[in-house]
Amino acid sequence: MEFSITTLALLVLTPLLVWRIYSRIKKQMQRQRSIGSRHYTGVLVFGAMILVPLTQLFDTPYNLAALLVGAGGGIGYAVWGLKLTRFEETPQGYFFTPPARLGLVMSMILVARLLYIGIEVYANQGKGIPTQQLTDSPLTMLCVGITAGYFGYYSAALLRWRRRVRKAIDQV
Prior knowledge:
Layout: H1 5-28, E1 32-33, H2 36-56, H3 61-84, E2 86-90, E3 93-97, H4 100-123, H5 138-171
Antiparallel strand pairs: 1-3, 2-3
Helix pairs in contact: 1-4, 2-5, 3-5, 4-5
């Protein structure tokens, strides 16, 4: 079995890429300031991650079901994650500490699937095998649904928490 220099580079750089993504996501799973615009962005981006593929999946029921089941599972995990989240209202502002392990798992599910697709595209390069669309695989749609459902619902819940705290402060 012969390896080209490109294949060897891919084998060496993939673990490095995974480590960098993991360490970057891990830094985001610590105590952080609650910023409303970030939460709105989260709702919009992760909502779009569900709605855009949804519009293409009406003719493939298995992929549609995988996306919807994944989104439902992600929302379920978000509800659980919110119970584990520590919320703080201080004079410096609003802060929250998300459950680090759960957030890392939800992020890395999608990262792992996208890396697999990238390696698959690289392995099939030059073989005349057509590249599948992202929405062609039920497993990919499940991963997208889980990740988008989790972070979209989590962002929406953070917005609701901020509104509730502000309303309580205004009433006092």
